[in-house]
């Protein structure tokens, strides 16, 4: 039972997080220990630098976008004290999107409404990685940006441009040269999103 | 009033005098003399066995107590928080392509990176190597316990007694021994330095070094098991080992004689260094010389070329790692081209965590921690010597040695650089990932143009 995590996590907090995210008690305490070890400043919140200190995340081509997903727009006081910091609840809320869907059967005590790890919510998480300005549409520019992040310098601008154009053509059904969330969902309807966007949390 | 205290005064003085004498005699007989001759009474092993029994009892008691109070017991994530799937980028993308009719890019391609990214946020291979390991059972030190609420009086009493014993008895004992050991080292090596160079001097220097290191070993209550001593490093070679703490040096040097390598320090360290080098040739670098890789390499090669000089002791990781893994070995020592004697050191974390988190604790704080733990228990394995093979470059040789050490010590073998403790990861690794993905994208378009 070693852990440097101090007992800042109260039972009521754990219960609330359990209800909101569906994680089990032991998973929450373990993830709190992880949160604490990432929090170098020991102020109960993670900043972007704390995430960037993880080497495997720093070398991920989409690393910055993923880090962004933890810092939602605007300051919802429950999850962030400041715009550039995320507290443990916000951290758990984002991680909850990656819970496997089967686990929902085991935890019946979730709040009503769609659980955070439903197929739609997982797709929405991925959608937001593309949609940088959060206007609910993926424009050609935004698509190009993400493509450029993933391929680096290895593909020319023209080739990348034609890839982007082709992708938008295939997905866009209402002709506005942008991909909306419903068009995004339609394109990916055959993909096993539940499995691809799930992490096997051990109990 | 004063005359009333007087008889008590002298009585107290007498008692103190007697206890000091007894104390020092015991110290001499049971610790220093055996250290000089390299024998052991086996007291430490008995101590270790009784501690293990105690810890097991304490853990059971805590589990029982938690169950009675219906509290949740925190279990460390020794098996990991998540189960990662070892699927590569290409495999993943091929799988996703299978359904559809070969488009070049699919919007779902980001799922792989996304999942990998979040997995690394939850559990990554590198950052957890720079903090102390978590323990399965409690070892009665509050510094390693998350569950310590008041569960039972007996347990709290035991813990309290533990504190008393460790800080009241063990700590002063160890500090005395440490001072004795270091003091003797400085004095005796200086004396040996007065002898003319020759076999006598080498013999005496070896004996002096061994004796002082053995006293230091007892100063830490280190219980060390050496395996495969037939592979001990010989003159004209380099000994490489995984690095967990400065104590590694004491552990290895109490069983064999080595030439140390390091930077010249000021203060007490400097005094020790200057004294040691009088007795036998160690390699100390000035701060400015450390940057010059050629100079460093030259001095090391000159040393190994001289058969009369002791084997060099080097820690190629360059920094302290928490003893659950071995990180990248710097290739410098493997370019010299002599025989390499790998050594694996594995500490048993139940008795005291030897890892030095240099970004969190200073040296003095660390030594205090060490000397107030129960004991330092470790195993040392001497691996058979290795040399660079035909067609192998220094980096491959380094990785081969690292893999052998990791295997023997039961540690994870990582390619990551220990320098990541403080520095940022190089951009080139991200570029590799990008190149891989581009190959998958462009590769599929080549197939299309062919069909």
From TrEMBL, chain A:
<keyword id="KW-0963">Cytoplasm</keyword>
<dbReference type="InterPro" id="IPR011992">
    <property type="entry name" value="EF-hand-dom_pair"/>
</dbReference>
<comment type="similarity">
    <text>Belongs to the calcineurin regulatory subunit family. CHP subfamily.</text>
</comment>
<keyword id="KW-0472">Membrane</keyword>
<dbReference type="GO" id="GO:0005509">
    <property type="term" value="F:calcium ion binding"/>
</dbReference>
<dbReference type="GO" id="GO:0005737">
    <property type="term" value="C:cytoplasm"/>
</dbReference>
<keyword id="KW-0449">Lipoprotein</keyword>
<keyword id="KW-0653">Protein transport</keyword>
<dbReference type="InterPro" id="IPR018247">
    <property type="entry name" value="EF_Hand_1_Ca_BS"/>
</dbReference>
<keyword id="KW-0519">Myristate</keyword>
<feature type="domain" description="EF-hand">
    <location>
        <begin position="159"/>
        <end position="194"/>
    </location>
</feature>
<feature type="domain" description="EF-hand">
    <location>
        <begin position="26"/>
        <end position="61"/>
    </location>
</feature>
<keyword id="KW-0597">Phosphoprotein</keyword>
<keyword id="KW-0813">Transport</keyword>
<keyword id="KW-0677">Repeat</keyword>
<dbReference type="Pfam" id="PF13499">
    <property type="entry name" value="EF-hand_7"/>
</dbReference>
<dbReference type="GO" id="GO:0015031">
    <property type="term" value="P:protein transport"/>
</dbReference>
<keyword id="KW-0539">Nucleus</keyword>
<keyword id="KW-0106">Calcium</keyword>
<dbReference type="InterPro" id="IPR051875">
    <property type="entry name" value="Calcineurin_B_homologous"/>
</dbReference>
<keyword id="KW-0479">Metal-binding</keyword>
<dbReference type="GO" id="GO:0005634">
    <property type="term" value="C:nucleus"/>
</dbReference>
Automatic annotation (TrEMBL), chain B:
<dbReference type="GO" id="GO:0004366">
    <property type="term" value="F:glycerol-3-phosphate O-acyltransferase activity"/>
</dbReference>
<keyword id="KW-1208">Phospholipid metabolism</keyword>
<feature type="transmembrane region" description="Helical">
    <location>
        <begin position="366"/>
        <end position="383"/>
    </location>
</feature>
<protein>
    <submittedName>
        <fullName>Glycerol-3-phosphate acyltransferase 4</fullName>
    </submittedName>
</protein>
<comment type="pathway">
    <text>Lipid metabolism.</text>
</comment>
<dbReference type="GO" id="GO:0008654">
    <property type="term" value="P:phospholipid biosynthetic process"/>
</dbReference>
<dbReference type="GO" id="GO:0016020">
    <property type="term" value="C:membrane"/>
</dbReference>
<keyword id="KW-0012">Acyltransferase</keyword>
<keyword id="KW-0812">Transmembrane</keyword>
<dbReference type="GO" id="GO:0019432">
    <property type="term" value="P:triglyceride biosynthetic process"/>
</dbReference>
<keyword id="KW-0443">Lipid metabolism</keyword>
<dbReference type="InterPro" id="IPR045252">
    <property type="entry name" value="LPCAT1-like"/>
</dbReference>
<feature type="transmembrane region" description="Helical">
    <location>
        <begin position="151"/>
        <end position="169"/>
    </location>
</feature>
<feature type="transmembrane region" description="Helical">
    <location>
        <begin position="20"/>
        <end position="43"/>
    </location>
</feature>
<keyword id="KW-1133">Transmembrane helix</keyword>
<dbReference type="GO" id="GO:0005783">
    <property type="term" value="C:endoplasmic reticulum"/>
</dbReference>
<keyword id="KW-0594">Phospholipid biosynthesis</keyword>
<keyword id="KW-0808">Transferase</keyword>
<comment type="pathway">
    <text>Phospholipid metabolism.</text>
</comment>
<dbReference type="Pfam" id="PF01553">
    <property type="entry name" value="Acyltransferase"/>
</dbReference>
<comment type="similarity">
    <text>Belongs to the 1-acyl-sn-glycerol-3-phosphate acyltransferase family.</text>
</comment>
<feature type="domain" description="Phospholipid/glycerol acyltransferase">
    <location>
        <begin position="237"/>
        <end position="348"/>
    </location>
</feature>
């Amino acid at each position: 039972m070693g852990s440097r995590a101090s007992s800042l996590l109260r039972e009521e907090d754990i219960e609330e997080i359990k209800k909101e995210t569906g994680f089990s008690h032991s998973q929450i305490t373990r993830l709190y220990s992880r949160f604490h070890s990432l929090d170098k400043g020991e102020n109960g919140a993670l900043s972007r630098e704390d995430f960037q200190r993880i080497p495997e995340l720093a070398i991920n081509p989409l690393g910055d976008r993923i880090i962004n997903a933890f810092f939602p727009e605007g300051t919802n006081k429950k999850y962030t004290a400041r715009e550039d910091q995320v507290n443990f609840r916000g951290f758990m809320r984002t991680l909850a999107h990656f819970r496997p869907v089967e686990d929902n059967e085991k935890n019946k005590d979730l709040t009503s409404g769609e659980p955070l790890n439903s197929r739609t919510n997982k797709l929405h998480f991925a959608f937001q990685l593309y949609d940088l300005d959060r206007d609910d549409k993926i424009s050609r520019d935004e698509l190009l940006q993400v493509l450029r992040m993933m391929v680096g310098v290895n593909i020319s601008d023209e080739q990348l441009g034609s890839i982007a154009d082709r992708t938008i053509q295939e997905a866009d059904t209402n002709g506005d040269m942008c991909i909306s969330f419903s068009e995004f969902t339609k394109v990916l309807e055959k993909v096993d999103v539940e499995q691809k966007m799930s992490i096997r949390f051990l109990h | 009033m004063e005359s009333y205290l007087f008889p008590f005064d002298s009585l107290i003085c007498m008692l103190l005098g007697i206890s000091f004498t007894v104390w020092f005699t015991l110290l001499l007989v049971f610790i220093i003399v055996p250290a000089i001759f390299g024998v052991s009474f086996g007291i430490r092993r008995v101590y270790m066995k009784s501690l293990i029994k105690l810890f097991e009892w304490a853990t059971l008691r805590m589990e029982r107590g938690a169950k009675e109070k219906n509290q949740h017991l925190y279990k460390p994530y020794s098996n990991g928080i998540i189960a990662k799937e070892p699927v590569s980028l290409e495999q993943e993308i091929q799988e996703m392509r299978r359904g559809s009719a070969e488009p070049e890019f699919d919007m779902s391609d980001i799922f792989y990176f996304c999942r990998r990214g979040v997995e690394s946020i939850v559990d990554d291979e590198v950052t957890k190597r720079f903090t102390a390991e978590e323990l399965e059972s409690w070892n009665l030190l509050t510094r390693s316990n998350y569950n310590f609420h008041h569960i039972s009086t007996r347990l709290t009493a035991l813990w309290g007694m533990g504190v008393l014993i460790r800080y009241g008895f063990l700590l002063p004992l160890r500090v005395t021994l440490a001072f004795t050991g270091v003091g003797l080292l400085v004095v005796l090596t200086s004396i040996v330095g007065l002898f003319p160079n020759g076999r006598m001097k080498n013999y005496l220097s070896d004996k002096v070094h061994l004796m002082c290191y053995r006293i230091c070993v007892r100063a830490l209550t280190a219980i060390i098991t050496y395996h495969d001593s037939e592979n001990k490093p010989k003159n004209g070679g380099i000994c490489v080992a995984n690095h967990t703490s400065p104590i590694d040096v004491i552990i290895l040097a109490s069983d064999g004689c080595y030439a140390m390598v390091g930077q010249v320090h000021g203060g007490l360290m400097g005094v020790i260094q200057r004294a040691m080098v009088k007795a036998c040739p160690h390699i100390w670098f000035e701060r400015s010389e450390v940057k010059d890789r050629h100079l460093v390499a030259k001095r090391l090669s000159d040393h190994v070329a001289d058969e009369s000089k002791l084997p060099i002791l080097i820690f190629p990781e360059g920094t302290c790692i928490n003893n659950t893994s071995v990180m990248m070995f710097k290739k410098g020592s493997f370019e010299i081209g002599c025989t390499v004697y790998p050594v694996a050191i594995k500490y048993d974390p139940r008795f005291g965590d030897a890892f030095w988190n240099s970004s969190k604790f200073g040296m003095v704080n660390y030594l205090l921690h060490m000397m107030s733990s129960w004991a330092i228990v470790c195993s040392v394995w001497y691996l058979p010597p290795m040399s660079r093979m035909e067609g192998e470059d220094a980096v491959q040789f380094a990785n081969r040695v690292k893999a052998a050490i990791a295997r023997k010590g039961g540690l994870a073998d990582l390619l990551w650089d220990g320098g990541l403790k403080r520095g940022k990861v190089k951009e080139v690794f991200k570029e590799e990932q990008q190149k891989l993905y581009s190959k998958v994208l462009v590769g599929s378009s080549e197939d299309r143009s062919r069909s």
